[in-house]
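hey all, quick one before standup. I had two proteins in the batch that finished overnight and I want to keep them in one place so we stop losing track of which output belongs to which input. First protein below, input sequence then structure tokens straight from the run.
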Amino acid sequence: MSLAELQELERKAVVPSYARFPVQFVRGEGTRLWDAEGNEYLDFLCGISVTSLGHCHPRVVEAVREQVGRLVHVGNLYYTEPAMRLSERLADSSLGGKAYLCNSGAEANEAAIKLARKARPRGEIVSLLGAFHGRTYGALSATPQESKQAPFAPLVPGFRAVPPEPAAIRAAVGERTAAVILEPIQGETGVHALGEELLVAARSACDEHGAMLVFDEVQCGMGRTGTLWAYEQTGVKPDAITAAKALGGGLPIGALVTSPTYGDVLQPGDHGSTFAGGPVVARAALAALELTEAPALLETVRERGAQLADGLGALPQVLAVRGRGLMLACEVEVSASDAVRRALLEERLVLNATGPSTIRLLPPLTVSAGEVDEALARLERVLAASPAVRGR
């Protein structure tokens, strides 16, 4: 179908919950995408950190093809080897406890909230201003952004949001706190890494009062920052992490991974999902995890991340660069949304605006040095041709 036909079909049949760009992608390979007219694009967004091994990685594709021809679904009333193996690999690669498999990052955070509330019944959940944990009701209640919460009030009770400051964390956590949930690097508001002092304060407060510390690594985990899990670059080990996005190599899957202390808190009947950890997505995730944890790939992420950050910082219209590894954002003196649209339509470069002056870059972890240079050149042309916004 043509783009015009798809747009007409959307107007007729699709709930208008997305603002889409006028591009129809039909094929992807590595760092490249192609639209229906055959134009080639450089993808520095990865479907918001999902296709982090590049589009259609051969190992992931082969795992899916083999599994989908053998067994697609039976549900969690029975055993399947991919789900059991994936749970073991996730736990062994991180906190050493147990894993609960689900279908998305929001579901993983819902599971973390339920786990915390089971461990401390009716306990309060503390999150940070600027956080994003998902759009389902529990995850949304931990996402203190007025534009996302206000249309759907009242939200789930028992949530408190505090500024991302050590003193605020220490003051908020008490005997009735079930958990503190935070992203080591906040993604949706423009890639803001939380300081070491704040993380230490959160760990100390949770230890003092017997609360869980949950790290939401849905976006910053799975190699994105240069280590398999973002918490590895901090001096703080959480009680649980949540993962999704890149975990499935492009397919929808999420996971809650616990430390040994919390591995058996949830019991049969406490939580579940019809599709969670199905054989096909679990096989894809096993392949993606094996590829991502390779030391050579993680070293490449650190090298390419430094190259991209340095290159962004050298662009005249860039005011600041933030992030770690290949999870980066830059503040620009032009309209970010306009620049992102022009980059897509004029330079065939896929980016994302997370604020009026913030451009986010999440390229594949497999990106080459030449592709980084190519993206920088395209972005430089876009920014040079964009008028500066007054007051910046």
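OK second protein, same deal, sequence then tokens:
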Amino acid sequence: MGKATMDDPRSAYSRLLKERLAEIAAREKGHQRLGYFRLLSAAAAAVVLWLAIQHSLTILWILAPVAAFIFLIVIHERLLKRLDRRRRAAAFFEKGLARLDGNWAGHGAAGDQYADPEHPYAADLDLFGKNSLFELLCTARTHVGEETLARWLKSPGDPALVRERQAAVAELRSNLKLREDLAVVAEEARTGVDPVSLAAWGESPGPGGAPLNTKSNRMVVAALSLLGAFAAAALVCTFLYQAGLLPVAPATASLLRDFLLLALVVNGAYLYRKRNEFAAVVGSVDAAADQLRLITEVLVRLEQESFQTPLLARLRGSLDAEGEPPSRRLARLKRIVEYIDSRDNVAVKLAEIFILWTPHWALKVEEWRSHSGPAVRRWLTAVGEIEALCSLASHSFEHPDDPFPEMRDAGPGGAFLEAEGAGHPLIPEAEAVRNDIRIGDGLQLLVVSGSNMSGKSTFLRTVGTNAVLAQAGATVRARKMALTPLSIGASSARSPRAARIAAP
């Protein structure tokens, strides 16, 4: 998106929402037309069948409407997928407009699972729950993105890291297309990806904690596969001999049978002894590959971006493994899993003892994991951080008057915080009462007093919440703000009257 859309988020959201709704309407009409065509092709098949029964037409004519029906099913599925994605895109812009209108509370991710009653300020500053700072900020669709944003809100970053995040947010703020695409493609990974187990699978050394993809195992499987190939040839020769089609001496035929028996015993014994190890490998890859499939489109979308700021460039670079982008690595794993799934084929089951199909592809899985497995954690980390940065970028885009604070390194003078025109980010801008504050340069204690319901608690929460935003890398609700690294706390979970801001 251009700079003009940055200056007018409402116009940008409204225009793009109108475009997506028009696309949805057009695709819904196509959905209806395809439904009618499918019904028509089914009716045509019934007519052809009736005519064939009446001997008026050959039954082969039924292939035409059946082929048309199958073709329409494929086209219909693709259209429904595109329709679903346009609906997700429309929802993304509708939620953006709701945030601009102040109607966002209760409609987003509340983040209750990240609330910690022992945290020094999470409960006091309404970081999580309905109408919380997390719900206002979070546009992430994956669990790892939500977890990253929650961690940033609970754990302040050092000034150098915060400045890097600010630069990344500034770059992403104008990239509305990327934020829309991530909201669309990451939705499928929302409930189906467990980042902890997936990263652990990628880094696992093998079943039982021992590497399976060793040189000795590869050599044994290769040798036994070759033995099995010769055994299969011996089996064919034995059948031909029994049928009188292979003129060999009885001694030779006996030798072939003995060789066949020996190969079956050796291969069968190996398969039986290693059955648990191979079963563990092929069993674990099914679940892991399914989770990786869900985030494949997210990774592919990110690998298409060319970022300029150092933090985003590092995150993009971390996606590559040994110089290859995630799309190639994941495509390779997909092919391996497809070959493993072919074990259900009757022919493959019968040939298993000859070709050692399962051990061969189990070793391919372990080979993939040894080269690409460590990258899985990097992929998840990059997805989480970019989604968290996109959440902060959306907030900045929707509040163009909110500036980035000046993050200063800790100095000999101790903690410092200065804000001009600070308002609470959870209160609509038109209703927020703004105040100035300055702590530091000799002033180490600020006593806030006043009558009940005069705004003391809101003022302290305003300062604390903006400090949280500042140290997470976000823009703040103030005309300007500067601060050093701060430690934020309160005397009790819901007692902002005794809020405390100090140097770490």
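Flagging for whoever picks this up: The first strand starts at residue 406 and ends at 407. Confidence is low (pLDDT under 50) at residues 1-6, 492-499.
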